[in-house]
Amino acid sequence: MNDLVLGSIADDFTGATDLANNLVRAGMRVVQVIGVPAGPLDAQADAVVVALKSRTLPPHEAIAQSLAALRWLQAQGARQIYFKYCSTFDSTAQGNIGPVAEALMDALGCDFTIATPAFPDNQRTVFKGHLFVGDVLLNESGMQHHPLTPMADANLVRVLQAQCRRKVGLIGYQVVAQGEAAIRARIEQLRADGVGLAVVDAISNDDLVRLGPALKGMPLVTAGSGVAIGLPANFGIAPLSQAGALPGATGHQAVVAGSCSLATNRQVQAFIQTGQPALRLDPLEIAAGQAAGTDAAAGALAWAKPLLGQGPVLIYSSAEPGAVRSTQEQLGVEAAGALVERALAAIARGLVELGVRQLVVAGGETSGACITALGISQLKIGAQIDPGVPWCHASSEAAPGQGLHLALKSGNFGADDFFSKAFKYLT
Questions:
Q1: How confident is the model at residue 2, as a pLDDT?
Q2: Reduced to 3 states, what is the DSSP secondary structure of residue 127?
Q3: Cα(231)–Cα(209) distance, integer angstroms
Q4: Which CATH number fits domain 245-426: 3.30.43.10, 3.30.565.10, 3.40.980.20, 3.30.70.1270?
């Protein structure tokens, strides 16, 4: 009999491990599954995170996948549902955050829920309904240049209202600072005013801890991963170091990076400056090679093979915003993204077949493609490397009978030295 209390639905793979990481740190035994499983959960867990690749799907497809995940989690006995999205509230005017949240509310018969991407540990804070990344508003942080979900407005009430049928309100920082009773009173006031979703301010971890008790018994919570630090206590769970124990690490080390975020670009440059081997994939060259009958993935693997025994290697397609725009203009936005994803996914599988057993993948879309190519269906969540990014352990079709350590890093997460630090941490 499982002890599952929290069932989570994440809209991308790195976001799923981000959430799972915070739950493990708070003492929960967590399993992350890739997509909706065909059968019952076969591991003991307090929380399960279903990782979808739905962030940039058309809204109706994202809704269908999320509802399928909900039905599976309900069948496993989950008592509370957590819809997890990115701490930069990645979405478009059409969704998918609002439409998926409302579809889950309808399915759960829920008339009210909260929404906040706040994650102060990663410098994501919400103040007066506005999302800050570090010291700047979201729309000044680089996210305004995101190739798939450019964020031009930091006012989350306004962004969410554009996506929702229900009225969207705000639980301000002055209320949050007063704790559970004040937050519950504000929720009742908003309900009376016909509000169905409320953005919640949070400028520190203390705010998230104060918010947690007020969410006890709420059928649905929607948030980034930060809110997770305040939920396990509602189920009588306290931090426990053994919750994140993983097997020992073996094998070669590699990094595959597809994100073009400012943080990942800095991490790529920091890795190169250490003198470690790095190979950049150019989408235009990949496309030209395909037309000429050459395989970019095969070429990258041939480059990596003699280097793997000497330390970590990096294969990346990350680029500055100007270069990304130029590529998209020549190939098309979707075509350029799909081209790179396919190449990096094939490279990730090839690296594991060559003996890589410690693999860092940077970028949400890239992580989704690589996990699929590796034939991974379930991840055990381990200890944190940097806020929001844990090491995980899995079985892969590319290495039958052997364990694989994985770190799935959101493009915007991690310190500049993340790639080098991750392997030292695991060792």
A1: 57
A2: strand
A3: 8
A4: 3.40.980.20
CA–CA gap between residue 208 and residue 214 (Å, rounded) = 10
Distance of alpha carbon 304 from alpha carbon 284, whole angstroms: 21
300-306 contacts, C-beta under 8 A, 24 or more apart: 300/343, 300/347, 300/350, 301/347, 301/350, 301/351, 301/354, 303/279, 304/254, 304/277, 304/279, 304/351, 304/354, 305/354
The string of pLDDT tens digits covering residues 122-150 is: 899 999 999 999 999 999 998 898 888 88
Please provide residue 2's backbone torsions phi and psi, each rounded to the nearest 5 degrees: -80, 155
**Tokens matching residue 394:** 């899995």
Chain region(s) in the chain for CATH 3.40.980.20: 245-426
DSSP code of 282?
P
pTM for this model (two decimals): 0.81
Q: What are the residues whose beta carbons fall under 8 Å from the beta carbon of 227, sequence distance 6 or more?
A: 82, 114, 116, 118, 208, 211, 212, 215, 221
Cβ atoms of 208 and 180 closer than 8 Å: no
pLDDT tens digits, 73-108: 999 999 999 999 999 999 988 889 999 999 999 999
The Cα–Cα gap between 25 and 419 comes to: 21
- Check residue 415 and give its pLDDT: 95
Rounded Cα gap, residues 250 and 404, in angstroms: 8
How big is the CA angle at 377 (ends 53 and 88), to the nearest 5 degrees? 30
Task: Say what the pLDDT of residue 238 is.
Answer: 87
Look-up of token digits 């694989």 = 404
Q: Which CATH code of 3.40.50.2300, 1.10.645.10, 3.40.50.10840, 3.10.150.10 fits the domain covering 6-239?
A: 3.40.50.10840
Residue type, 96: N
Closest CA to 6 of 221, 185, 321: 221
pLDDT in tens, 309-323: 999 999 999 888 888
Q: Where are the beta strands (DSSP E) in 138-249?
A: 167-171, 195-200, 220-223
